[in-house]
Structure prediction request, 455 residues.
Amino acid sequence: MPTQAFEYLDKACLAATSGPLGCSNAPTWELLIAGQPSPDAVRQALRWLCVAYPTCAAIVVPQGGTADSAKQFAWSWPDTPPIDQLFEFHDLREQPAEAADRLRDAVHDRFLDLLTRPPLQLILAWLPEQRARLFVKQHHGLADGRAMIEMLPDLAAFLNHAQAGTQPMPQQLAVIPRLPELSAFDLTPWQRRWLLLAGIGEYIRSAFVTLRRPLSVLKQNVSLDYSGGNRTLHVPLSAGQLQAWKDAARRAGGNLNWMMAAAFMVANQRWNEAQGVHVTRMNATTAAETRPRGKPFRSFANHLAFHIPDIDFTRFHGIADVMPEIQRQVKAQNDRRAHLKRYLFERWFALTLKMADFRKLLFTSPRTVVNLNFSNVLAIPIPRLEGPGWQVTDVRVSTPLIPRTAIVLTLTNYDGAATLNFNFKASVASQAEVQQLIDVFLAEVAEFVSAQAAS
Prediction:
């Protein structure tokens, strides 16, 4: 069978997976559909999808050891994809509305054992009133958000061919490459080595900051019980609302991305303080793509690094002053290539670890290293997905979590409509508590927008 060696982020995503601990690391894209695509057509679309994206049908193979002792792993896929493992269908047309929600929760909580089954699964549910839902569940080791967003239109095109009984063009079935992570970097081997060594300095810098100002432990950082459900509250934003937020951020000298990040941090500070947690210092990982800009680079894989804004809440208090501080820090990190230095050092270190040791680092850390995680793909809109007799009316995403970030905010954009996806672990935070956080978030943004409009 064809194989492809693991990259660093493949291994990291697998390490962040634990069935016994309740961590699936498998996001679910939920497509709400007007119309009811044929199950047979979806199955055929999947067959074609696995031609263009062969790792969708792969399993993980340890190399040189067992699943726990191996340091190296590879993807391995058959010539004929195991469609029965990749697809399932539920006819809920005669069922009450709650049945669809129960299925949604079950899909979100489903664990994908990559040693025995592929990293992708499509679950089609027919609902009353000629509606449907299609759940596209993917292990994060398969691909990052941008790669999945680029894949969804191909899935829609294959579905339309399947329903019409036509054959895709040869170029549609051409394999989308899974490029090495380092191929995205415009770096010489010497520069990579230098940045790797400089990554040690970034960790030393962070350690000194923590010695001077210990990181606050937020309510959602305390518990290591991740056995609860993977739940998400979705907050749709109207086009007018989103434009008002953009305009306010611009008037304040910033942009929507960093205004949202600031709002998330400020809202968490307010929410924690209201529950008796004194917050002095907070940080967050914010996803940054490593794909090169200004030239073609299509890769169905993970190509991510992270900026880490770090806010002293004894000095900064609201969105209006936290946003420019985040921007200042991110610019400084970009200027010294801090995110690349951390990535290259982490890559070298992680690839030397046995899988069992890697998991210990992720799941048994005695202290909080990162408070929050924020991921924004509003700038990568999902195009309209439709065909004869069906149309996707909305796309939501639910992202599972690992210790100790039990509440994560992901921002998505489908066909011009934005959604705030507040993901949370039900064993750490209740739905009512997360709704309170959302209310604080929206109130803080409304106050910021109002203040900028009046200035």
User: Anything to note?
Assistant: The longest helix spans residues 189-212.
